[in-house]
Amino acid sequence: MLLNVKNLSIDYQGNPTVSNVNFDLGAGEIMAIVGESGSGKTSVIRAILGCLSGTGQVSAGEINFAGRDVAHLSNKEWLSIRGKDMAMIFQDSGNMLNPVQTIGRQFVEYIQLHSDMSRSEAVKRACELLARMNLPEPERVMDAYAFELSGGMRQRVGIAMALTFSPQLLLADEPTSALDVTTQAQIVEELMQVVQEAGSAMIIVTHNIGVAAHMADKIMVMAGGKVVEYGKTAEVIQDPQADYTRTLLSSVPEIGGHRYVG
Amino acid sequence: MSDKEILLSTDKVSKVFTLKDGQKFTACNEVSICLHKGETLGLVGESGCGKSTFVRTIMGLHPATSGKILFKGEDITNLTGEKRREMARHIQMIFQDPATAFNPKMRIKDIICEPLRNFAKVSDKEAETRAVDLLHQVELAPEIALRYPHELSGGQRQRVGIARALILEPEIIVCDEATSALDVSVQDSIAKLLAKIQREKGVSYIFICHDLALVSLISHRVMVMQKGNIVEELPGDKMQECKHPYTKKLLDSVFTVH
């Protein structure tokens, strides 16, 4: 088992926010965590990556990643794992990218930080990764600043960077929520394809259970910091046990679904 | 719908921007629509297709390059000054993210009543009564009147945005991606609220959204826009009968759970 999370609880300034989360994930598997804003889903994946924001901390439980408990590592120990064995894709990669450096410069810096590639090798590798994410003219993207790219292009850059070292575990926090539906559909397909090629496991956090149903092997539904349902995708979608899951399922707008107007 | 009164119509409205290098960019190309009383007209397309530019032109936030905009038969294309201001009584707008549309230093009751104060002298007491009444209509607790925008959740803020759009009792409300920033479950509740308000007050909506599924469920008619042009018009409940390849592409982008 690549990742095994046991009784994970998280608090912010002593206020319990997430309690008793249990799940495991094998290599190549995709899990989706679904829930509304504030349900604690982002806290869970941030805890796995060891970067809870502000005052957040793991108050109890274990996070076993590749045979090692990573719940309480020091910043120094994290340097060798984060970005290499485990990487994150954010909701808006535009916020993650440095606005005053070209994409190429920060991409090359990132590659060289985790490997001993030369500059020209790193440039070549970065271009390959960008091309793999269906970005036309990768050289032009390398010379661009984040604000010169569209939302979909920025997100592709973020995904390309996260995939650089074919991480064993990829964490994606609402990777398509800030995008148009058409771009969302493309990114979802590309993400599934590259993850499969790289053989990575992935946890995707989303509020759209439609996206989760399409991508994931298993689904965990969270509400108010607790897991309300956890199981194989087909079971959760076709035979939801919790009322909350049913509410989420019925809120996904569908063509020919229940109309709001006559 | 065709026997109903036409509230708003546009006749070949175009908006051309001049870029820095002197090139012309046509954001809206000869767009003609008509909106009936009590109807929801959906406008769908990707970012950059010109849907927001089009409604901003209708609202008079920038002048149209060519074409005509008629409100109840009266030409409002080139209104200025006091007459333009008076039009705001009839057409109001709900924005994508009310957090950026509200003054963070104003209490909710003042945010809701600001449009009212722009048109009439209102005592504080009267304003508060109206605010509480509107909060009730958008299903929020009266205590919220005294809070500030940052103390509310995204869904609550959007309800306040709706309350503010309603206070002048407009005939048309333009919703520009009003639910796109919200969780699906909150989106569902806001869509239900908008439909309820329409049944009760007979208000018309122009509903802009990039999610074809949502637009089709909330609209009586849907116009599909691509690169500044309306490429197809369909009844909201007959989206599957679309002919245009772009509409088909939008249809295919919808993730379903069934």
Automatic annotation (TrEMBL), chain A:
Subcellular location: Cell membrane
Gene Ontology molecular function, alphabetical: ATP binding; ATP hydrolysis activity
Ranges for domain ABC transporter: 3-249
Pfam family, one: oligo_HPY
Its membrane topology: Peripheral membrane protein
GO cellular component, one term: plasma membrane
Biological process terms in GO annotation: peptide transport
Signal peptide: none
Keywords, ordered alphabetically: ATP-binding, Cell membrane, Membrane, Nucleotide-binding, Transport
CDD domains in alphabetical order: ABC_NikE_OppD_transporters (cd03257)
Family (UniProt): Belongs to the ABC transporter superfamily.
PANTHER family reported in the protein's UniProt record: DIPEPTIDE TRANSPORT ATP-BINDING PROTEIN DPPD, OLIGOPEPTIDE TRANSPORT ATP-BINDING PROTEIN APPD
Name recorded for this polypeptide: Peptide/nickel transport system ATP-binding protein
UniProtKB/TrEMBL annotation, chain B:
GO BP: any one term: transmembrane transport
MF GO annotations: ATP binding; ATP hydrolysis activity
Residue span(s) of domain ABC transporter: 8-252
Signal peptide boundaries: none
Domain of life, per lineage: Bacteria
Keywords (A to Z) from UniProt: ATP-binding, Nucleotide-binding, Transport
Name of a matching Pfam family: ABC_tran
PROSITE patterns: ABC_TRANSPORTER_1 (PS00211), ABC_TRANSPORTER_2 (PS50893)
Protein name: Peptide/nickel transport system ATP-binding protein
